[in-house]
Write a structure and sequence with these properties.
5-stranded antiparallel β-sheet; Immunoglobulin-like; 27 strands
Length: about 750
């Protein structure tokens, strides 16, 4: 190729010099339409970083019009940067649409830009989520399943935020498979385990309550909770981005009851904010009280706002400014401040006692003392009007010491104590109560950590749409594991509903076993075709039992039933129609049968009915209501019977039947309880036995329904060790059978 002439070189240099003198804004205008998208992306990112987002928008729009999935290793997805530029211009809805389109292109191209995925999820609100659930769930999966792929520190911060939302849900063992640090390490220091993504995938899979569907409903619920929490309970300085309310919401969902203690009550303000009491209304923290009664007795939380405008989990004492109860001396000023603390405590605990009964004892003690102070103050007013002789007699009578504290018109008050009766002054009482409340707060936190699950789902909330009866007796396997049997049934009238005749239906039953950490360990699915018209008049439908084996120290079961209409198609096949009824039941906190080989153990009682009254034709009976003519058998097993010197085992079995009538108003004057008992002794060569007890319920027949409790006790006569089990029924009275 011939070289260019000097004149032409001069012209070229002039053009280059001119280009160098151009601003970056005009440089974009000089770029060829065929310029590399990567160069354009880099230039746009620089502009956004320098605060010139307006100039970056058309360039990024142009890039995405040619390649919706444009992305490079250095800057990531162009869609993320366009959405960021639009956000800086206040065009939030347009930014969300850009991020949504970018995420769709990302999934279609099968790659992940963590900032783009996070931006899309962070842009959602609970209202928007309703239309975006499938895409939101897929995007969350792409993030949490790739936590071990973090590159830059910025990417790791995003992954840490999602991991911080999962952390409270995980057991210590599970958390160790996600991060390399212990639970008490600061999330800012977290590094992820090599197989963290694979662990997250397996963990979420175990939590899926209905594996037959394509959607993981438990993960979907978690994403919905996360999005709500990010909107309602933000705390930017935390790794999770959430305050303690947000974390609690992610764990358990919507609280069953909430309450706020406000301090606008006029009597409260008059009694607390006095001259000489250096406390301001703003020192009483904003707060929220949450209750989860269905999870545990101690399932309540107190949240108070800290100085960073984030709510943190607190105790009852945190509702009171510390300067009110940290008085050390017994001066007039200290007594005055402590009296204000007393009045504040009375008001706060009156609200807490209405919120949860655990606070009632402390409130009662505070209220009694406050009433004493008020009564002594009233007595002092009367005493001021008495003669000196009468005053002396009054002091002897009251046996108390009183003094006036505070200064100013209407600002003084009388405080009293009595050494004879052990009644302390306000300073001493408030100090003692602060210690008591602090101890109760500590005990509540400890008990809550033991009793509350790491997380709970509303997907297994009970429903009365299909009344199902279920029993879950436990038995000991020969290998030492515990077998939990699940047998259930439903009355055909409930399957039929209000219609005189119904189509055949399909009962779909799913049972999920969870370990002590509420993580799924096993599941069983069954389908039952039910044609009510061909049940030959049977009033109940009962399924054959299923069972789960476990060695866990605690087992939970989630049971679900759905009844679907079965329709016939024109081709002669059948398909499922609409869902008719559904219910879910939880069987929580099932502990294992003791497997200690040198000590007698006993299974639960399995209720069975037998037309012949013998085990030969007995079937499991799950219902809690039974008629007096029903032949009832109780089956149970004994384990670890001890041998005597003749290599024989000897034991006794006794049972007691208690029947209590439901007599309405007569119960106010005494319970109508009848008891019968029987005992028998047995000798065998086996350490493990199977036992049956036949109950003739006709002997208990009465007009009214009765609550029947059967207690079976077994005693190893070689060792003297006993074990017992109890089952209960409602025995139908003759009036109900008419």
């Amino acid at each position: 190729m011939a070289s260019a002439s000097p004149a032409r070189h001069a012209g070229l240099c002039f053009l280059l010099l001119t280009a160098l003198l151009l601003t970056k804004e005009s440089a974009w205008a000089q770029q060829s339409p065929t310029a590399s998208a990567e160069i354009q992306l880099a230039t746009a990112v620089d502009a956004i970083s320098e605060g010139r987002s307006t100039e970056a928008v058309p360039v990024l729009t142009d890039i995405l019009s040619r390649d919706p999935a444009c992305c490079n290793n250095e800057h990531g997805a162009a869609a993320y940067w366009l959405g960021k530029a639009l956000t800086e211009q206040g065009r939030h809805e347009k930014a969300r649409q850009v991020w949504r389109s970018g995420v769709e292109a990302m999934h279609a191209a099968d790659w992940l830009d963590i900032r783009l995925a996070d931006a899309f999820l962070s842009s959602l609100t609970p209202a928007l989520l309703r239309a975006e659930r499938p895409l939101a769930l897929k995007t969350y999966e792409s993030i949490i399943y790739s936590v071990d792929d973090a590159g830059s520190e910025g990417e790791r911060d995003i992954y840490r935020r999602y991991a911080a939302e999962m952390e409270p849900l995980l057991s210590d063992e599970s958390l160790n498979q996600l991060i390399e640090q212990p639970r008490d390490a600061s999330p800012e220091t977290w590094t992820f385990a090599d197989s963290a993504g694979a662990f997250a995938r397996a963990w979420w899979s175990r939590l899926d309550p209905i594996p037959s569907t394509e959607t993981n409903e438990r993960m979907e619920e978690h994403v919905a909770r996360s999005i709500h929490a990010r909107q309602a309970y933000r705390c930017p300085h935390r790794a999770s981005g959430l305050d303690d309310r947000g974390i609690t919401y992610i764990r358990f969902g919507e609280p069953r009851r909430t309450k706020v203690i406000d301090y606008e009550d006029s009597e409260f303000r008059e009694e607390v904010f006095r001259f000489g009491v250096a406390v301001a209304p703003r020192e009483f923290p904003d707060n929220e009280l949450w209750r989860y009664d269905s999870l545990a007795d101690v399932g309540y939380y107190i949240f108070t706002e800290n100085n960073r405008q984030c709510y943190e989990s607190s105790g009852a004492l945190d509702l009171l400014p510390s300067r009110l109860y940290q008085n050390r001396g017994r001066t007039d000023r200290a007594q005055n401040i402590s009296y204000s603390a007393l009045m504040a405590l009375r008001y706060i605990f009156s609200e807490l006692a209405l919120f949860h009964p655990d606070f009632s004892p402390v409130y009662s003690e505070i209220s009694r003392y406050a009433t004493y102070q008020e009564s002594r103050a009233s007595a002092a007013e009367v005493r001021d009007k008495l003669s000196a002789e009468q005053e002396t007699n009054q002091k002897i009578y009251t046996q108390s010491e009183s003094e006036t504290v505070g200064t100013g018109l209407g600002q003084t008050r009388t405080v009293s104590s009595s050494s004879n009766f052990g009644i302390d002054s306000p300073v001493g009482f408030v100090r003692t109560m602060a210690t008591t409340i602090r101890q109760q707060d500590h005990a509540t936190r400890y008990q809550r950590s033991k009793d509350m699950p790491r997380h709970a789902t509303d997907l297994l909330a009970a429903s009365a749409a299909l009344p199902v009866s279920v029993r879950t007796p436990r038995f000991l396997n020969s290998d030492g594991s515990t077998r939990v049997e699940v047998y259930w049934g439903v009355q055909t009238s409930h399957l039929r509903g209000a219609q005189p005749a119904v189509r055949p239906s399909m009962l779909m039953f799913s049972a999920v076993q969870y370990d002590a950490e509420h993580e799924s360990t096993d599941r069983v699915d069954r389908r039952h075709f039910v044609d009510i018209e061909s049940l030959n008049g049977n009033t109940i439908f009962a399924s054959s039992p299923i069972s789960f084996d476990s060695r866990s120290w605690l087992v939970h079961l989630g049971l679900e039933w759905s009844q679907f209409e079965v329709r016939s198609t024109t081709s002669g096949s059948t398909r499922l129609g609409k869902r008719l009824r559904q219910t879910t039941i939880r069987a929580d906190s099932l502990r294992p049968i003791r497997a200690t080989p040198d000590r007698l153990a006993m299974s639960d009682l399995r209720a069975m009915v037998s037309p012949s009254g013998t085990p030969a034709d007995a079937i499991a009976f799950p219902f809690s209501t039974i008629g007096p003519d029903t032949p009832l058998l109780l089956y149970f097993e004994l384990y670890h019977l001890a041998y005597d010197e003749d290599d024989q085992t000897r034991y006794t079995i006794s049972y007691e039947v208690e029947a209590e009538t439901q007599g309405g108003w007569t119960r106010l004057f005494g319970d109508d309880v009848r008891k019968t008992s029987t005992e028998a002794e047995y000798t065998t060569s086996a350490r493990r036995t199977e036992e049956y007890i036949y109950l003739d319920l006709t002997q208990l027949r009465q007009e009214k329904n009765q609550d029947v409790r059967v207690t079976v006790r077994a005693t190893d006569t070689v060792t003297g060790v006993s074990a017992s089990r109890t089952t209960e029924f409602e025995l139908v009275g003759s009036d109900a059978l008419k």
